[in-house]
């Protein structure tokens, strides 16, 4: 059976015990938040290195705050670069969001969809790319309230990608969450993005709190409508590396592999052509 | 296009951060049900990180006290570290800062117990490695491992729990030596005043010969710095070496 070499799993501390470093795993790469593994020593750091020496890793940042009006924390960007160099990691991504004002809040807020935000954020993305000298993706985030908008989420996202000349990490679950929370057509959103800008995909589970309110928890299995959207993305943009995120209510590894195997089978089947 | 002034959109984002930090204030901008999602998610996330760092202390204070302090931390303090591991340390900094509103319900041993609990997390993750150490000798300086700390507490923090809450400081301070050994285990060791004093001297002046430290202490404790005394001191430091408290570099600051 041919492989796609393009299926990943979000890596958690719990996996340090669930996986013996060196054992054959059912995914092609893992992904960590650098904020949870950088600038540390001791047992955790040693265990982590046993994994990065044996498996391919991507990184997905949490605290860069691309949408913040405060100056970009370049010391932090340089620390991330050292971390990536140190573990020989090529890929880094961050959220199109803000997680701070004049202090960190450790969770993600939407950026107002305005023209000045497009230029401001794109400039910061360019600064990051210049410093890191490696592939960098920005991710569409789920959001629960619209704080201000002069344009649609789609227009805003596409404008930033074009202005910064960077690639999108398209989080398929987030598209679905937002389409329900803000009443738009998820399929049209995906098909509205320039396929050449889509470089990498995330998929995850969520929690439906009300008929018109979904919370992006990463705490459940991927839902059917989100699997359907993955077909749509592959049809629109072609096969891309795709990672399963699971951060809470962690099931046994075998259950996570069942879900990453679904990603693999969709990639191999070519069935996504029919879905769109 | 390089912009140096904060962009105009910032005003709208700052309304959201203000509402997340200060949920008791009414916001007219955002649908309450959706704003509450943000307020709840952000609060729970920060509360989880702080709670997991202080399991003993959290058992001692009321839920009301605890939740009120987390709320105060979010509204009055500005965290500067991008690392989630540093949230607990920043919470400690907040509790000792001027921006924290005063309260009369703090346990008297609060700061000491919380620091004691935080130290374990700190040493577990500290970005340094044990280097094997160097056999101590009387006529050389002694270097301590960067993963070892001497702590002096006015309360016996290691004995405090829900059922044992001192109301007054002890007559004598509690000295604890805390270190991470070669197996990455965090060890807490009780020190007597003599050992604590020697450790503090070594820490302050690593380049000074151990013999000189011991002579100084002998004078302070009214003892005769004879060979027997010096050998006892050496064997104490040798014990620290055996337990991974010393670092290799000798006679110079690391």
Portion in helices of chain A? 25-40%
Number of domains of chain B: 2
Main-sheet strand order of chain B equals 1-2-3
What is the CA-atom radius of gyration of chain A, in angstroms? 18 Å
Q: Supply the number of helical segments of chain A.
A: 10
User: Runs of chain B with pLDDT <50, length 5+?
Assistant: 250-254
Number of strands of chain B: 3
Overall average pLDDT of chain A: 95
| SSE sequence of chain B, one letter per element | HHHHHHEEEHHH
Q: Helix/strand/pairing class of chain B, anyone?
A: mainly alpha
Determine the CATH topology of chain A. Answer: TIM Barrel
Strand content of chain B: 5-15%
In CATH terms, what is the architecture of chain A?
A: Alpha-Beta Barrel
Proportion of helical residues of chain B = 40-55%
Name of the CATH first level of the largest domain in chain B = Alpha Beta
Can you count the beta strands of chain A? 12
SS class of chain A: alpha/beta
Main beta sheet of chain A: 8 strands, parallel, barrel
Low-confidence stretches of chain A: none
Broad CATH class of chain A: Alpha Beta
- The N- and C-terminal alpha carbons of chain A lie at a distance of 25 Å
Provide a concise account of the structure shown:
With 276 residues, chain A is α/β, with parallel strands linked by helices. Helices cover 40% and strands 19% of the residues of chain A. Chain B has 254 residues and is mainly α.
């Amino acid at each position: 059976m041919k492989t796609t070499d393009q299926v990943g799993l979000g890596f958690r501390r719990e996996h340090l015990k669930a996986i013996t470093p060196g054992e054959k795993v059912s995914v092609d790469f893992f992904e960590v938040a650098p904020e949870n593994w950088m600038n540390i020593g001791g047992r955790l750091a040693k265990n982590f290195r046993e994994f990065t020496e044996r498996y391919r890793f991507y990184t997905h940042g949490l605290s860069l705050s691309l949408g913040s009006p405060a100056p970009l924390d370049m010391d932090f960007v340089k620390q991330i670069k050292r971390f990536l160099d140190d573990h020989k990691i090529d890929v880094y991504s961050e959220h199109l969001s803000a997680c701070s004002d004049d202090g960190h809040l450790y969770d993600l807020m939407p950026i107002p969809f305005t023209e000045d935000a497009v230029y401001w954020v794109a400039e910061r993305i360019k600064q990051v790319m210049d410093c890191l000298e490696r592939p960098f993706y920005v991710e569409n985030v789920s959001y629960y309230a619209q704080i201000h908008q002069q344009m649609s989420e789609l227009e805003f996202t596409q404008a930033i990608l074009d202005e910064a000349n960077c690639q999108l990490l398209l989080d398929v679950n987030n598209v679905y969450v937002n389409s329900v929370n803000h009443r738009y057509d998820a399929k049209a959103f995906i098909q509205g993005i320039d396929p050449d800008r889509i470089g990498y995909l995330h998929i995850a589970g969520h929690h439906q709190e009300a008929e018109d309110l979904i919370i992006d928890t990463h705490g459940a299995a991927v839902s059917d409508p989100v699997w359907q959207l993955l077909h749509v993305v592959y049809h629109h943009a072609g096969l891309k590396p795709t990672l399963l995120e699971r951060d809470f209510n962690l099931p046994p590894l075998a259950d996570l592999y069942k879900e990453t195997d679904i990603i693999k089978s969709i990639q191999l089947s070519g069935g996504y052509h029919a879905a769109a | 296009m390089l912009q140096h002034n904060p962009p105009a959109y910032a005003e709208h984002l700052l309304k959201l951060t203000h509402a997340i930090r200060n949920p008791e204030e009414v916001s007219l901008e955002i649908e309450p049900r959706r704003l509450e999602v943000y307020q709840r998610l952000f609060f729970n996330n920060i509360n989880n990180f702080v709670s997991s760092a202080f399991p003993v202390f959290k058992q001692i204070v009321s839920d009301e006290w605890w939740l009120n302090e987390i709320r105060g931390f979010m509204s009055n303090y500005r965290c500067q570290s991008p690392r989630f591991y540093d949230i607990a340390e920043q919470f400690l900094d907040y509790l000792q800062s001027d921006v924290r509103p005063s309260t009369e319900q703090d346990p008297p041993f609060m700061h000491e117990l919380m620091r004691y609990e935080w130290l374990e997390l700190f040493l577990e993750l500290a970005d340094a490695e044990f280097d094997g150490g160097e056999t101590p000798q009387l006529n050389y300086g002694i270097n301590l491992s960067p993963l070892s700390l001497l702590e002096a507490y006015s309360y016996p923090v290691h004995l405090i729990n829900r059922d044992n809450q001192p109301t007054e400081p002890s007559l004598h301070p509690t000295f604890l030596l805390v270190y991470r050994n070669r197996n990455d285990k965090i060890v807490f060791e009780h020190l007597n005043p003599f050992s604590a004093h020697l450790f503090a001297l070594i820490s302050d002046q690593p380049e000074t010969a151990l013999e000189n430290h011991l002579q100084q202490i002998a004078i302070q404790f009214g003892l005769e710095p004879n060979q027997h005394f010096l050998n006892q001191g050496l064997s104490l430091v040798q014990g620290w070496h055996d337990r991974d408290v010393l670092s290799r570099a000798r006679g110079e600051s690391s």
